[in-house]
Amino acid sequence: MTAAETTQFTIENVREAICERRTTAAALTTEFYARIKKEDAEIGAFLTLSEDRARAQAERIDKMAAEGKPLPPLAGVPIAIKDVMLTRGVRTTAGSKILENFVPPYDCTAVARLEAAGAVVLGKLNCDEFAMGSSTENSAYHPVRNPRDKTRVPGGSSGGSAAAVAAGMAVATLGSDTGGSIRQPASFCGVVGLKPTYGRVSRYGLIAFASSLDHIGPFANTVKDAALMLRTIAGRDPMDSTSAEVPVPDYVAELEKPISEGPSWCGAGAPSASSGQALAREKHAASGEPIRIGVAKEYFGSGLDAEVRAAVEAAIQKLAALGCEIVPVSLPHTEYAIPAYYIVATAEASANLARFDGVRYGFRARGAKTLAEMYRQTRDGGFGMEVKRRIMLGTYALSAGYYDAYYLKAQKVRTLLTRDFDEAFKKVDVIAAPTAPTPAFKLGEKVDDPLAMYLADIYTVTANLAGIPGISVPCGENREGLPIGLQIFGRHFDEATVLRVAHAYERAPFVVRR
Fold this sequence. Notes:
alpha/beta; Amidase signature (AS) enzymes; eleven-stranded mixed β-sheet; 17 helices; 11 strands; globular; disordered N terminus
């Protein structure tokens, strides 16, 4: 199996090729390393390659195939891991100088589960330092360039994870999402990115940014591949007390369920409902229950790029044409999401990053005369500007006299946002929205304007604050050929419906014309 045999590698076609002995895991691993060495000098998606580990895994898979043994579900599939997840014996930096030479003694649970399922880990992927950023320009090593336009950012903080899939340097990858860091890069790079429900995937071995907001999830070329990845990594882990004891469905089987029991029809417009849609809803009520898709006006405000709006509205029309019912909903506290998020997230970052002090592991400044001086010099030299900015913001929000005014109030807003989603999901099954307000922006365009950078997450942070699942799927391009993402939110632990709607949209053989 070579690039000439397939226009796009997927988990399914890779595994089939190995099972049918049309290729070997070792040959495929060699081919992907050749791709990385050819393409990545310009893109910058990888920080560390794990060739010995990858080739040993590939040999194990090939030995099983040669002996006629049943192959695991991800047998020989080349994947890569965001460099905030621990990998035993493989350098893990979190994109920071303070962990430049850190080699973990154990694996992140999600990584261990992927390898147990037969995946081949090619290496570790570049990211914003400690996952703090929206462009992957905050990496202490080098920025990542968007494979679709190398003058532009791939999004962040999981920019390396999105770029590796988009450039064909991995079949699938893992990223982390604290405020949109899977979905926004997926949108910018034109791939699929899934953030599961909080607690669905173990965070054991994930270097913490904000513990109540962090999620691990997959990037892939297709929704089906994302479902396969999630099925592998999801489930209760005794090593993570926040992982939920909730049954994990067969997400791949769920994809094949219809999103409407009745015949397809063409909706008259989105996001507003029309009398034509109301008539169609009545017809569907008689023949079956369609998926109800909520559309909130709060996600279609004045800050939304016109071409992004048009693409997302067309995507919603397409879902309507597939038989879904479009229902207006309201998420009235959305306007407070960014300020609430950047108080909660920075406060938790301040506490989590206190452990990086140069005493136990990681970088230590030399030449300090006192312990306090060593702490200051280590943290000042080891952390980048954005990380230091967020630590200071969080420390201030938690300080005496300001805790109630900032942190406590932000947590109250978080509760209101969660209630907004709870109320909306009483009326609908999923909610459709833009993933990001604009397509990928230019490298350097927002580096000196932190507020503008933070606002790039305006449509994604709400899902993290509420803990609900969300996915970004490509839904078109602008005039410059830059990808645009459609975001789909679902109820807690209902990734199956989110994936099902995204899969139906992805596979639909037609586009609704406006």
